[in-house]
Fold this protein.
Amino acid sequence: MKTKLAPTIRSKLVLLVMACVVPAALMAVLLIAHDYQRARDQLLLNSLSTARAMISVVDRDFASIESSLITLATSPYLASNNLRAFYNQAQQVLKNQRDQDGINIVLSDNQGNQYLNTHQPYGSALPPHTEIIRLEELFKDEQPVISDLFFGTVSKQNLFAITVPVPGNRQTRYSLSAGVMPERMDKLLQQQHVPEGWIAAIFDSAGTIVARTGNKPELIGKKGVPEIVRRMRSADEDMFESVTYDGTSVHTVFSRSKLSDWSLAIGIPTQSIMYELRNTLFLLILATIILLACSVSAAWLIGGRIADSIHGLTGPALALGAGKLVIVPPLHLREADEVGTSLARASEMLHQAQHQANHDVLTGLANRALFHEIVSQQLALCERNKTVLSILYIDLDGFKAVNDKYGHEAGDKLLRAVATRLKTNSRHSDVVARLGGDEFAMVMVGATMENARFVAEKMVDAISAPYVLDDTLTSHISASIGVATYPDSGTTSEGLLHRADGAMYKAKNLGRRRVALATSH
């Protein structure tokens, strides 16, 4: 298997984090963009409402001036043609008028000839004729007229006029006008507290700029940008994008008055509208990067711990394959701990199965197969190290009579008792095995024939002692033991065991309960 090409847990977790965080961030961007679009549209609608309110303020100012003119037009001095007295009265009205700066009152006849102008002393020479005021419309409809912005020949400044007809003599018709400076409209705009950076402008019916925020006096009296003028002529109000004279891209809203035919426009710089969106998106991107970095780091650490836990199973798995007893330390991961526990249980089961395959079920001693394997291994060491080895072949005397008389259960108890005595009286390095039935064997590494005979005699005495199997049953048996030694008696496991078996039968023939030695081969 090409394990190096396979993805790691860490890489999978990182991809999982990115699969969760990135789509969520993209969804957040879409939601923010949608919310921005909705907020922008709402801002423009609110701005349009503001434009309506502001143009109504302009109309109210016009109405205030008209009311003053209409009241002044009923002066008895005009009826009596006492123009000097009327001039003084007009001056007094201006003094009593709040915010009268930048206003002058003009009395003209139906031909446009000025009779008096409060901007000049009474009796001064005045322009003979002006076509700025729409006199025909004024006298025909008998309604006030508001002019567009024009350059005053007396004041030598840009201004606009509000004119009302003077009731009276049919032969000589008079009109009464108030010339208003654009600065008055500037004050109105300042009073509306337009947000900083926004542009508000008042346009006359021809699309000429009368007043504008932003301290741009050079634009007063100039036509608005073509796009604004075109839209003002085609609609009473609208919302659109345009560019100002100074090159600023703005979202523009305007409202046109049906009373004065003047318009008020508000321009919101696109930059300011986009600023909040950019800020929000920047914060979102920054937060996404931080979140992604933290999440990837966490995934990397967690993936490393998971990988360590899985790697911790490699050693136990190899030990299990080698048939060794597996001990798995805590891996700090439930699933890995569960697998480790399973490996340990499997190891125990395998070890138990191996033990059962190589040991006698009844006594727990090694069986014939394991005994031969151990003897063969020890013989190889003896050959290499030039040492000796002895085998004891043990057969019980009188066991069959006990088994037949008291039953297999008693026989099994007796065999287990014999196995216990054999292990008790053997060295730690000796291996005791049950070959089958009532036959046992023991291998003694490093023991000479004489050493083995001495141990065998002790074994005979130990095995021949009475056995108390239960409170009422005491059994008496003995043992016959044959001894064979490497290399004198044989050089293979089978050969030694065969010679020891022959010696055991020799002991039985000699009267049992004794030890017999195998001769040299």
Notes: The CA atoms of residues 96 and 358 lie 128 Å apart. The two ends are 56 Å apart (CA to CA). DSSP finds 14 helices and 18 strands in the chain. The chain has a mean pLDDT of 87.
